[in-house]
């Protein structure tokens, strides 16, 4: 059985199309990423799958149950960590965890094995109110609360947004361990680099899925040579390359610009030579998920 | 002539009770520089930034902003700076033009200046048609660009950006940096915090705070050499993880 099946889901709010014809499946034990910026429709999709919102059209099944007809069954078997911190701020860590265990007619002890790794990191502060925890600790507590009833499917809506790189890395290490326990995970993130840590990803923008595949296949399908270009004054370099008629796209990427061309690289060299950029470097580069995402966005804008 | 400094701090410290949030930080930022101010959550960045904006009195140490003392000349400091954060937002129930007029008025621009600045800003952002729309109806990326343009409407010498690009799509994020580059090119000093390590690379120099102290400060390239790292992400992880 496929733990998550989404078929042609549509959802509008007034005149705003939040989701347009969304379909995908998540396989057993898969870590599936929904990659896209704020406003792409990720949270709306989670709310539909978590039975908190009705779609206008389409079907969805979680753990084999229809999210509309069998919503009670879905709710019992899903662990859901919403994008906004939604635990009780004035209850302590231990109280929050007990509360969620009790709601699902279980106890923290019964499923302790599943949360042990994560809970032990916050246990020293178990008598502290949730509202007084740091961002990283809140996130760990929220994950424990989503896991305490041993869900068959885990939904994580932007668990790493606004969190520093250290806590983000720790969080993804926790997800990898959970995955190894066989729990299928649907996770959303606006951070493109996190796509590489998923088994499969859907790139989502303006309510539409632009592409679904393994991260490696998405990158492999980029289809254009990327050139990494650097000079002392990056702003002037960016302006110059954008003004070059042979430029297809030019975006800042860390210490380099990523440039794709409608002509060959020697033409770019020739164009830049008289502009006298200091410390100019041009070299071939591997595209990443973010290159693909931007390329797909440009194509999407052209067709709409 | 010697270098012009937008920000100078000497052993700037803030304690809350027994907790030292900012621990004797010393650094200078040159006029026109893009300075990245990085650190893990809770490292003391926000406290430091609030002191530099004249919003919080330090416990000890010294600092000047655009030449003004942050203890005695907080009003002059506030006039010379702009501020934008992801959380700080425009008034959603005012239109784009009303927001511009409101902030420009607060910064003391004349009616004539407000009129000119409004036209210039809307043209630059290609938002002439949206001037009369409520801010609540704009996409997030547009709000952020508008918010930045309003933060520099009074031609400040320094603008403080507190995680300005969280959650926006990769193209809009880069368009936002185009605005930053352009402002820096005009000579505005940019003081920016971010959790995107690729954005750290866009800065001229970077400081990394760990537990209230500045643990590293240099150009991105020199920091990578110093820590023998491929990316700023590696540098950050090495420093922030070393603490415990």
Automatic annotation (TrEMBL), chain A:
Gene3D superfamilies named in the record: P-loop containing nucleotide triphosphate hydrolases
Q: Tell me where on the tree of life, at the top rank, the source sits.
A: Bacteria
Q: Which SMART domains match?
A: AAA
Coiled coil region boundaries: none
Give the range the annotation lists for the signal sequence: none
Residues spanning the membrane: none
Task: Please state every residue range assigned to the domain named ABC transporter.
Answer: 4-231
| Annotated keywords | ATP-binding, Nodulation, Nucleotide-binding, Transport
**Molecular function terms, GO-annotated:** ATP binding; ATP hydrolysis activity
InterPro entries for this protein: AAA+_ATPase, ABC_transporter-like_ATP-bd, ABC_transporter-like_CS, ABC_transporter_ATP-binding, P-loop_NTPase
User: What is the similarity comment for this entry?
Assistant: Belongs to the ABC transporter superfamily.
Q: What is this protein called?
A: ABC transporter domain-containing protein
Q: Which lineage is the organism of this entry classified under, starting from the top rank?
A: Bacteria, Pseudomonadati, Bacteroidota, Chitinophagia, Chitinophagales
From TrEMBL, chain B:
Q: Where in the cell is it found?
A: Membrane
Q: Which InterPro entries match?
A: AAA+_ATPase (IPR003593), ABC_transporter-like_ATP-bd (IPR003439), P-loop_NTPase (IPR027417)
Which ranges carry the ABC transporter domain?
7-236
One GO cellular-component annotation of the UniProt record comes to: membrane
Q: What is the membrane topology noted in the UniProt record heading this document?
A: Multi-pass membrane protein
Which keywords does the record carry? ATP-binding, Membrane, Nucleotide-binding, Transmembrane, Transmembrane helix, Transport
**GO MF, one annotated term:** ATP binding
Q: What is this protein called?
A: ABC transporter domain-containing protein
Which species is this record about? Answer: Chitinophaga cymbidii
């Amino acid at each position: 059985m496929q733990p998550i099946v989404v078929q042609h889901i549509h959802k509008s709010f007034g005149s705003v199309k939040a989701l347009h014809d969304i379909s995908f499946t998540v396989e057993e034990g898969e870590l599936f990423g929904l990659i896209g910026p704020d406003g792409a429709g990720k949270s709306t999709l989670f709310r539909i799958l978590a039975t908190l919102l009705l779609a206008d059209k389409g079907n969805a099944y979680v753990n084999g149950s229809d999210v509309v007809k069998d919503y009670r069954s879905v709710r019992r078997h899903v662990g859901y960590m919403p994008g906004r911190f939604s635990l009780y701020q004035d209850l302590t860590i231990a109280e929050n965890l007990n509360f969620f265990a009790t709601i699902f007619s279980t106890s923290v002890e019964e499923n302790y094995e599943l949360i042990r790794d994560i809970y032990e990191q916050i246990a020293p502060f178990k008598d502290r109110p949730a509202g007084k925890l740091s961002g990283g600790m809140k996130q760990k507590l929220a994950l424990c609360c989503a896991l305490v009833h041993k869900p068959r499917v885990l939904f994580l809506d932007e668990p790493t947004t606004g969190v520093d790189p250290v806590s983000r890395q720790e969080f993804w290490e926790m997800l990898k361990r959970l995955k190894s326990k066989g729990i299928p995970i649907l996770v959303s993130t606006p951070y493109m680099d996190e796509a590489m840590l998923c088994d499969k990803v859907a790139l989502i923008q303006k309510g539409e899925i632009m592409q679904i595949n393994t991260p490696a296949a998405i990158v492999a399908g980029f289809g254009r040579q990327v050139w990494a270009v650097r000079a002392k004054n990056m702003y002037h370099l960016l302006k110059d390359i954008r003004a070059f008629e042979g430029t297809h796209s030019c975006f800042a990427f860390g210490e380099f610009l990523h440039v794709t061309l409608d002509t060959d690289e020697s033409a770019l060299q020739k164009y830049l030579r008289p502009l006298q950029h200091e410390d100019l470097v041009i070299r071939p580069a591997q595209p990443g998920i973010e290159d693909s995402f931007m390329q797909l966005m440009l194509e999407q804008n052209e067709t709409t | 002539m010697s270098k012009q400094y937008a920000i100078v701090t000497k052993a700037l410290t803030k304690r809350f009770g027994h907790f030292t949030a900012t621990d004797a930080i010393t650094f200078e930022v040159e006029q026109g520089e893009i300075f990245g101010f990085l650190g893990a959550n809770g490292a003391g960045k926000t406290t430091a930034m609030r002191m530099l904006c004249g919003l919080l009195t330090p416990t000890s140490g010294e600092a000047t902003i655009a030449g003004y003392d942050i203890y005695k000349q907080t009003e002059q400091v506030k006039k010379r700076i702009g501020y934008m954060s992801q959380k700080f937002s425009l008034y959603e129930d005012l239109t784009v033009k009303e927001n511009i007029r409101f902030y420009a008025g607060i910064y003391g621009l004349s009616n004539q200046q407000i009129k000119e600045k409004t036209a210039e800003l809307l043209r630059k952002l290609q938002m002439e048609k949206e001037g009369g729309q409520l801010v609540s109806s704009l996409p997030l990326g547009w709000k952020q660009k508008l918010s930045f343009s309003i933060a520099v409407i009074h031609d400040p010498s320094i603008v403080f950006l507190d995680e300005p690009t969280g959650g926006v799509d990769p193209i809009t994020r880069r368009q936002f940096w185009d605005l930053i580059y352009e402002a820096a090119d005009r000579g505005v000093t940019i003081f920016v915090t971010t959790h995107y390590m690729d954005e750290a690379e866009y800065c001229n120099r970077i400081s990394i705070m760990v537990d209230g102290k500045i643990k590293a400060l240099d150009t991105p390239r020199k920091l990578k050499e110093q820590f023998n790292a491929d990316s700023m992400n590696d540098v950050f992880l090495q420093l922030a993880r070393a603490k415990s």
